[in-house]
Design brief:
It is a single chain. This protein is of the alpha+beta class. It folds into four domains: about 140 residues, ATP-grasp fold, A domain (Dna Ligase, domain 1); about 100 residues, D-amino Acid Aminotransferase, Chain A, domain 1 (2-Layer Sandwich); about 270 residues, no CATH class; about 110 residues, Phosphohistidine domain (Glucose Oxidase, domain 1). It is about 45% helix and about 15% strand. α10 runs antiparallel to α11.
């Protein structure tokens, strides 16, 4: 085809605003409009989509146009006609070449043009059912490279919460390619109104003044196009350049994370560690209240006063607060009038972490009650109800759920009081180790808590992905005995080295032995308690599904599984209505909402903690680190399991993706639960958004001898499949390697 005046082969970017998108492609068309609006865009030219069919003619013109731009180097970037659309970004599908010398630009342009027909682009288009011929049309943008002092991306709306009044900025020093390629995770700033705040990272890429400029640039681009925008930018010699702008895709509806009353609300506390997804209505209105009821009854038995957890469901996600209000606040006030109960609470909340020897008596009593009373009663009830479940009527099924749910709540308190104190005891032991042994022993203290008899995750038939009974339970295999033997030998060798180092000081050696024995004993109890907690879940799920089947047979719902998207009162009413109730629309809409809530990035905490609680938690975490984390280029979390390993990232969101996980990969998840245990035998390391030092990922990773970092906050958002990372579980960091 011969180029005509209506279809030029080459056009200057600052003169291209009036040309059609079909010639310029999405990236160049957007930048041309913004340059015409007065924004600072690097100088460049566009090789239009007409050039692909007239390449012999276009090649010489490319060389001439580049010569007029200067000496270079240049960025040669794709500008597909189907690229940077509101419905699909095509991000990373086409080629981009940076630092190209002037003489090499024509070949680079041809390479980018050819990428429109690559296999990955074809796969992307097929996944989107895009069969339009225009989807393959390609223009190429050639720009003078910006010698960036800092660069990054920014969003005019919060991509995680959907908040339209927040600008989210991620910045790195130097070229933005460090961020886009995954070499660095950068620092994050959030702009709201006239203020900006650095939320994470300390790379010192930009200062507050630059963050304000980027915020205003991002807002200006969004105002220009009238929809939320995702932009790339760079700063060179104090000048802020706009490199790219495109509509934000998959932006969630705006949500706010507002608890029912002020306080410090945590997603990982108490039952939250067992709920890696939003909860279903039936769990929130039936099983959760029964668990809380049993929890309160057990606190009255053990402490002398009933303490009902203060919980909230925010945008579908479970949160709880240790501060309390209403019944919990009243219970805490009542403690002041009951010296014995107050003494027990102080022992659990403070002494377990500061002077664990003084807490051992109470913890032993509570552990004995769990083992000899609560666990047998729970198991007996589950077995008795299981024998009746297959033929039980509605009233018997309801009674079974109520009874077993309440008994499970009593177990939950035992876990909170005993297993929950285990990490505090471990913290005291870690402080002793750091003070008296770290200079003699070149290994993290956690190696003294692995390979313990009884602590390895055993084979169970009631492993869960979540305690929300919507999710099926699973069977987990026994651990590899050879791994356990290796870990035991490593532990015993380190124990001997520690005792040898402390031998000259008999008093210090005696305290080491006492703290070590307690830390090891409660680590074993913690694993045994958490393993037993979900014993009743196969029965609970069976009972709920039996009720769902009855409702389905009466026409109230479309399938038995729909019962989980009803509330308890609705189930009761539908059973009593005897076929006159239809809830199809209700369950369909609630399932749609639940699916949308699963895509939200629920914050790990809402509100500000009391100073004492913050200092206790942060102090324990920092004591657990073998050394301070690097200041830049890493994700920082809690050091959960020692070791250092490198592998490819595989992000797994739930059991439906377990088959994708391959041996030798790094497991990255929002959180893990017992049903995930088989993946640990194939993983080289584990990284989670949530969790704590006492969470499932922490415990099981140690017993499989692999490093783990938990509570990173957003690893599943900041990492991507196939990326190579190194996980250091003793320091609590994830280092991202540069992609080649």
């Amino acid at each position: 085809m011969t180029a005509t005046e209506a279809e030029p082969l080459i056009v200057r970017l600052d003169e291209a605003a009036g040309l059609a998108r079909s010639l310029l492609g999405g990236k160049a068309a957007n930048l041309a409009r913004l340059a015409a609006a007065g924004l600072t865009v690097p100088r460049g030219v566009v090789v239009t989509s007409a050039a692909r069919e007239s390449w012999d003619d276009a090649r010489s013109r490319v060389a001439d146009a580049v010569g007029r731009l200067g000496a270079g180097p240049f960025a040669v970037r794709s500008s597909g006609v189907a690229e940077d659309l509101e419905g699909a970004s095509f991000a990373g599908q086409y080629e981009t070449l940076l630092g190209v010398a002037a003489a090499d630009v024509p070949d680079a342009v041809r390479h980018v043009l050819d990428s429109a027909a690559s296999g990955r682009v074809s796969s992307y288009r097929a996944a989107r059912n895009d069969r339009e011929p225009s989807g393959e049309a390609m223009a190429v943008l050639i720009q003078v490279m910006v010698d960036a002092d800092a660069a990054g991306v920014s969003f005019s709306a919060n991509p995680l919460t959907g908040a339209r009044d927040e600008v989210v900025i991620t910045a790195v020093r130097g070229l933005g390619e460090r961020l886009v390629s995954g070499e660095a995770v950068g620092e994050q700033w959030v702009g709201r109104g006239s203020s900006v705040e650095r939320r994470s990272g300390d790379e010192e890429a930009i200062d507050e003044r630059t963050a304000r400029e980027v915020t205003e640039l991002t807002r200006r681009v969004a105002r220009h196009f009238g929809v939320p925008q995702d932009i790339e930018w760079a700063v060179s010699d104090g000048v802020l350049y706009l490199l790219q702008a495109r509509p934000m895709t998959a932006l969630p509806a705006a949500v706010e994370w507002i608890p029912p009353y002020p306080g410090w609300w945590l997603r990982n506390l108490r039952l939250g560690e067992w709920l890696p997804d939003p909860v279903t209505p039936l769990f929130a209105t039936w099983l959760l209240p029964r668990l809380d009821l049993g929890y309160a009854a057990a606190t009255e038995e053990d402490i002398g006063i009933a303490i009902e957890p203060a919980t909230a469901i925010i945008n579908g996600w479970y949160y709880t607060t240790p501060q309390g209000r209403g019944p919990l606040r009243d219970a805490l006030f009542e403690l002041v009038r009951r010296p014995r109960a107050l003494a027990r609470m102080i022992t659990l909340l403070l002494l377990a972490g500061r002077a664990p020897e003084r807490a051992d008596g109470l913890l032993t009593t509570l552990a004995t009650r769990w083992r000899e009373e609560r666990l047998p009663a729970y198991g007996d009830a589950v077995r008795a109800r299981e024998s009746e479940a297959a033929s039980a009527g509605p009233s018997e099924l309801v009674a079974a759920i109520d009874e077993v749910g309440e008994l499970a709540g009593r177990i939950a308190w035992s876990i909170a009081s005993v297993a929950g104190s285990a990490w505090k005891v471990e913290g005291a032991f870690a402080r002793f180790f750091q003070a008296h042994l770290s200079r003699h022993i070149d290994a993290p203290y956690q190696r003294l808590l692995i390979g313990l008899p009884g602590a390895a995750p055993g084979s169970v038939s009631h492993a869960v992905h979540s305690i929300d009974w919507h999710w099926p339970t699973a069977v987990t295999p026994p651990p590899d005995a050879r791994v356990q033997e290796r870990l035991r030998a490593e532990r015993e060798e380190m124990e001997a080295a520690c005792r040898a180092a402390l031998a000259p000081d008999s008093a210090r050696l005696a305290r080491f032995d006492r703290l070590l024995e307690m830390a090891q004993r409660y680590a074993v109890i913690r694993e045994q308690q958490t393993r037993s907690f979900t014993l009743g879940w196969p029965l609970l799920r069976q009972c709920a599904l039996r009720l769902g089947t009855m409702l389905c047979e009466r026409g109230a719902i479309a399938s038995a599984e729909d019962v989980f998207f009803l509330e308890r009162d609705e189930v009761s009413a539908a059973l009593a209505a005897d076929g006159t109730t239809t809830l199809h629309g209700t369950t369909r809409e609630r399932r749609r909402l639940w699916d949308a809530q699963r895509r939200l990035a629920a914050p790990l905490e809402i509100g500000s903690p009391p100073a004492l609680a913050r200092s206790q938690m942060i102090g324990t975490i920092e004591t657990a680190r073998s050394k301070a984390p690097p200041s830049e280029g890493v994700l920082v979390g809690q050091p959960a399991s020692p070791g250092r390993a490198t592998g490819r990232v595989r992000i797994v969101t739930g059991p439906e993706e377990f088959a994708r996980f391959e041996a030798g990969e790094v497991l990255v998840a929002r959180a893990t639960a017992p049903a995930w245990t088989p993946l640990f035998s194939r993983a080289v390391a584990v990284v989670t958004d949530g969790g704590t030092l006492a969470a499932h990922a922490s415990l099981v990773a140690r017993e499989f001898g692999i490093p783990a970092v938990v509570a990173t906050g957003d690893a599943t958002r900041r990492l991507h499949d196939g990326q190579t990372v190194t996980v250091d579980g003793a320091v609590g960091v994830v280092e991202v390697e540069r992609e080649r």
